[in-house]
């Protein structure tokens, strides 16, 4: 043992089992008061009286502590170590033996208690963190959540045209929170695109077509994602627990239809019947292979609806995004094409057969239910939201024209929260409902 | 000051599991072997499944004897004399026979029903090429040849003269204005020969869609359908489908990336009387093709008459009948 070492240590056994003299310790330390000096001597006296081993193995906690300190780096100098270790080992055993009987009962009880504690901790962690674990798993490449990017339009017509009022802010907050929550839950990427009226589009009168540019930008930004889900800002995802995979992608062939004659409000003649086209272009279902589907959209009562649609990364999509806006088409039609990019897509679909080979439709209520007020008063089973069927998404299309966007959004948000209550909330609600029905009937009796 | 404490004596410094280390080592080896074995097994399964699934279904296998190149010629039988059509047909058939290609002769009148009114007939070349593709689904390249063009040197095969990857890379004109003389959009300088699906040339004024090569596939359908859009047809481009092509090539990069421009003389040399040839774009003896450009549009020109001497010389040197 180097001579300087003992001075820095509190009185304790030397490695060899001997004791550092208290005098030595005191002498090398800085001046002490009398009280502390006597305290220390008495301590070291205690230590001298009782061998240090007697305090070992005396309880669970100190044993753990020793085990901990044993794992720290240690220095070995003394050659006579082995002998003493043996001795200590023997003593430890002896002590365990004597205690075994008396300790066994409480110990068993203690393990049970400990097990219970562990179970509780596990349960708490499960309740608290399991969703987090699952969600972060979905975000990994294995989980596959990142293969979908949700693109949400925000800030429509903001900036140059007008300042947003409180209602617009509220709408934006609610709708973005909605998408954020869904994206987080399923590990999808969320891309919020700013549709501030930009000079680039305004002077060419082509707002609306920036959709194509935004999707292209998102494709560049997330090079590993496969599907891009465009959502207008006045949409609301009603069912957070419904994954896109289960809802659409897993059964792409069976949930979608490629023959527009299934529902054809625009009366587009399908399939194209020109004799000079290839058989695939002339077939109503294209090649019938779901892997060739690159655009999934739905139709409302007046044709294509691009409030909620999916686009797959593919060469086909590159081409469509490229050809979607064309100055010659635009020059001739911009007065007619009230819905801009939507009408343009309808035109391309109707007149360029290659488009049809990549397009599939979903029944509207699959991804794009309408509230009453859009496309009629709410009775159309093809179009309007049904709470009973737990429709996936509501698109408050056209609410800015004479309807109240905020009121509709608020109503659907509350409805979504209510139909997706947890079991506990359901239980509470049913209790209070029961109570209300009792008290309500009593009150009625009183009134009557 | 406190230093790290030297260790206290441990009662358990001789852990009871020392003898077991050998066992665990053995165990570890076993485990390793099992893991390696399992991995190998998985790999084999993966490869097997990969190969069994990647095999094409028999329907997609190209039938034997399918011509690699289809020559598409569109005749406007109202505007061309029978003798003219016969000359051209013989010229094409001889060439196709020599190289194992096939011909697709189309009639403008077949496609007019799809046009709408007041649309120049020249638009018909687009559905004609699409028709050729539908008729020969297993052929790869489609060579649209203007009915006012003669193949003068049938010894040249298009596969090595034009369609070879290295040939494409060495011949294609990079970073030049797409539409002459000075359009802002220039051909890409980084296009690879394998990616090219559309080969054409320029004269002094335009891209010439009279002679071009196009590769069958989704991209070709995309180009032809977009090019044939009714709103382009009704727009009233001065040179009809030619200007429409100028337009879409400049506005849509997905089209430009698949396109290669060749020097005019490679497959589109102009006769001496044809206006608009680029420098070194006029026909010289030994060239692959001669074209009598715009011979119909001028009153003082007669296509058949201009063609006659060249047809004769071709007949003399290549057909001993």
UniProtKB/TrEMBL annotation, chain A:
<dbReference type="InterPro" id="IPR029044">
    <property type="entry name" value="Nucleotide-diphossugar_trans"/>
</dbReference>
<protein>
    <recommendedName>
        <fullName>Galactosyl transferase GMA12/MNN10 family protein</fullName>
    </recommendedName>
</protein>
<keyword id="KW-0812">Transmembrane</keyword>
<comment type="similarity">
    <text>Belongs to the glycosyltransferase 34 family.</text>
</comment>
<feature type="compositionally biased region" description="Polar residues">
    <location>
        <begin position="22"/>
        <end position="41"/>
    </location>
</feature>
<dbReference type="InterPro" id="IPR008630">
    <property type="entry name" value="Glyco_trans_34"/>
</dbReference>
<dbReference type="GO" id="GO:0000917">
    <property type="term" value="P:division septum assembly"/>
</dbReference>
<dbReference type="GO" id="GO:0000009">
    <property type="term" value="F:alpha-1,6-mannosyltransferase activity"/>
</dbReference>
<keyword id="KW-0808">Transferase</keyword>
<feature type="transmembrane region" description="Helical">
    <location>
        <begin position="113"/>
        <end position="131"/>
    </location>
</feature>
<feature type="compositionally biased region" description="Pro residues">
    <location>
        <begin position="1"/>
        <end position="13"/>
    </location>
</feature>
<keyword id="KW-1133">Transmembrane helix</keyword>
<dbReference type="Pfam" id="PF05637">
    <property type="entry name" value="Glyco_transf_34"/>
</dbReference>
<keyword id="KW-0472">Membrane</keyword>
<dbReference type="GO" id="GO:0000136">
    <property type="term" value="C:mannan polymerase complex"/>
</dbReference>
<dbReference type="GO" id="GO:0007114">
    <property type="term" value="P:cell budding"/>
</dbReference>
<dbReference type="GO" id="GO:0000032">
    <property type="term" value="P:cell wall mannoprotein biosynthetic process"/>
</dbReference>
<keyword id="KW-0328">Glycosyltransferase</keyword>
<feature type="region of interest" description="Disordered">
    <location>
        <begin position="1"/>
        <end position="45"/>
    </location>
</feature>
<dbReference type="GO" id="GO:0006487">
    <property type="term" value="P:protein N-linked glycosylation"/>
</dbReference>
UniProtKB/TrEMBL annotation, chain B:
<keyword id="KW-0328">Glycosyltransferase</keyword>
<dbReference type="Pfam" id="PF05637">
    <property type="entry name" value="Glyco_transf_34"/>
</dbReference>
<protein>
    <recommendedName>
        <fullName>Alpha-1,6-mannosyltransferase subunit</fullName>
    </recommendedName>
</protein>
<keyword id="KW-0812">Transmembrane</keyword>
<dbReference type="GO" id="GO:0006487">
    <property type="term" value="P:protein N-linked glycosylation"/>
</dbReference>
<dbReference type="GO" id="GO:0000136">
    <property type="term" value="C:mannan polymerase complex"/>
</dbReference>
<keyword id="KW-0808">Transferase</keyword>
<keyword id="KW-1133">Transmembrane helix</keyword>
<dbReference type="GO" id="GO:0000009">
    <property type="term" value="F:alpha-1,6-mannosyltransferase activity"/>
</dbReference>
<dbReference type="InterPro" id="IPR029044">
    <property type="entry name" value="Nucleotide-diphossugar_trans"/>
</dbReference>
<comment type="similarity">
    <text>Belongs to the glycosyltransferase 34 family.</text>
</comment>
<keyword id="KW-0472">Membrane</keyword>
<dbReference type="InterPro" id="IPR008630">
    <property type="entry name" value="Glyco_trans_34"/>
</dbReference>
<feature type="transmembrane region" description="Helical">
    <location>
        <begin position="33"/>
        <end position="53"/>
    </location>
</feature>
């Amino acid at each position: 043992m180097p001579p300087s070492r003992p001075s820095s240590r509190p009185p304790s056994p030397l490695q060899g089992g001997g004791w550092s003299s208290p005098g030595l310790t005191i002498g090398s330390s800085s001046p002490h008061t009398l009280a502390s000096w006597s305290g220390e001597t008495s301590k070291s006296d205690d230590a001298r009286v009782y061998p240090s081993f007697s305090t070992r193995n005396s309880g669970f906690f100190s044993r753990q502590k020793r085990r901990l300190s044993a794992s720290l780096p240690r220095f070995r100098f003394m050659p006579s170590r082995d002998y003493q270790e043996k001795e200590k080992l023997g003593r430890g055993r002896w002590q365990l033996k004597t205690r075994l009987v008396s300790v066994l009962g409480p110990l068993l009880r203690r393990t049970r208690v400990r097990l219970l504690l562990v179970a509780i901790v596990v349960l708490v962690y499960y309740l608290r963190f399991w969703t987090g674990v699952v969600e972060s798993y979905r975000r990994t490449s294995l989980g596959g959540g990142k293969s979908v990017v949700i693109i949400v339009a925000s800030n429509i017509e903001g900036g140059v045209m007008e300042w947003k009022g409180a209602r617009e802010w509220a709408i934006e907050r609610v709708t973005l929170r909605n998408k954020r929550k869904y994206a987080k839950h399923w590990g999808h990427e969320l891309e919020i695109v700013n549709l501030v009226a930009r000079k680039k589009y305004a002077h060419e009168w082509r707002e609306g077509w920036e959709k194509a540019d935004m999707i292209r930008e998102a494709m560049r930004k997330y090079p590993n994602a496969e599907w891009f889900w465009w959502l207008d800002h006045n949409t609301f995802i009603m069912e957070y627990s419904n994954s896109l995979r289960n809802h659409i992608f897993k059964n792409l062939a069976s949930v979608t239809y490629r023959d527009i004659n299934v529902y054809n409000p625009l009366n587009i003649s399908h399939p194209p019947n020109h004799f000079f086209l290839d058989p695939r272009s002339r077939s109503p279902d294209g090649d019938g292979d779901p892997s060739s589907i690159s655009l999934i959209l739905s139709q409302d009562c007046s044709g294509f609806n691009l409030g909620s649609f999916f686009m797959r990364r593919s060469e086909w999509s590159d081409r469509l995004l490229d050809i979607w806006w064309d100055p010659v088409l635009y020059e001739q039609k911009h007065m007619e094409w009230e819905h801009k990019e939507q009408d343009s897509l309808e035109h391309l679909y109707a007149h360029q057969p290659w488009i049809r080979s990549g397009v599939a439709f979903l029944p509207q209520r699959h991804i794009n239910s309408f509230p009453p007020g859009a496309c009629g008063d709410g009775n159309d089973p093809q179009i309007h939201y049904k709470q009973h069927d737990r429709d996936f998404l509501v698109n408050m299309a056209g609410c800015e024209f004479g309807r109240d966007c905020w009121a509709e959004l608020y109503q659907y948000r509350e409805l979504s929260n209510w139909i997706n209550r947890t079991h506990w909330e359901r239980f509470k609600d049913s209790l209070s409902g029961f109570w209300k029905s009792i008290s309500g009937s009593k009150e009625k009796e009183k009134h009557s | 000051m406190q230093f790290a404490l030297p260790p206290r004596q441990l009662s358990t410094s001789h852990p009871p599991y020392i003898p077991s280390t050998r066992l665990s080592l053995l165990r570890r080896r076993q485990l390793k072997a099992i893991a390696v074995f399992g991995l190998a097994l998985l790999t084999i399964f993966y490869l097997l499944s990969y190969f069994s699934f990647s095999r094409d279904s028999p329907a997609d296998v190209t039938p034997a004897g399918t011509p690699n190149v289809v020559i598409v010629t569109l005749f406007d039988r109202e505007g061309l004399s029978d003798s003219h059509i016969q000359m051209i047909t013989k010229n094409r058939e001889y060439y196709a026979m020599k190289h194992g290609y096939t011909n697709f002769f189309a009639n403008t009148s077949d496609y007019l029903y799809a046009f709408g009114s007041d649309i120049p007939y020249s638009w018909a070349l687009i559905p004609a090429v699409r028709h050729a593709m539908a008729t020969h689904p297993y052929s790869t390249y489609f060579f649209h040849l203007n009915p006012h063009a003669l193949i003068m040197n049938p010894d040249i095969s298009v596969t090595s003269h034009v369609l070879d990857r290295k040939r494409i890379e060495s011949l294609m004109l990079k970073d030049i204005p797409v539409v002459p003389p000075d359009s802002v959009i220039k051909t890409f300088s980084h296009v690879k020969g394998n990616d090219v699906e559309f080969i054409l040339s320029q004269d002094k004024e335009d891209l010439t869609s009279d002679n071009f090569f196009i590769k069958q596939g989704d991209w070709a359908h995309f180009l032809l359908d977009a090019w044939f859009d009714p709103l382009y047809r009704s727009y009233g481009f001065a040179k009809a489908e030619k200007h429409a092509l100028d337009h879409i090539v400049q506005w849509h990069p997905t089209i430009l990336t698949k396109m290669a421009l060749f020097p005019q003389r490679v497959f589109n040399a102009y006769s001496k009387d044809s206006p608009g040839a680029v420098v070194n774009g006029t026909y010289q003896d030994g060239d692959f093709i001669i074209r009598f450009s715009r011979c119909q549009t001028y009153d003082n020109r007669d296509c058949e008459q201009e063609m006659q001497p060249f047809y004769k010389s071709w007949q003399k040197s290549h057909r001993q009948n």
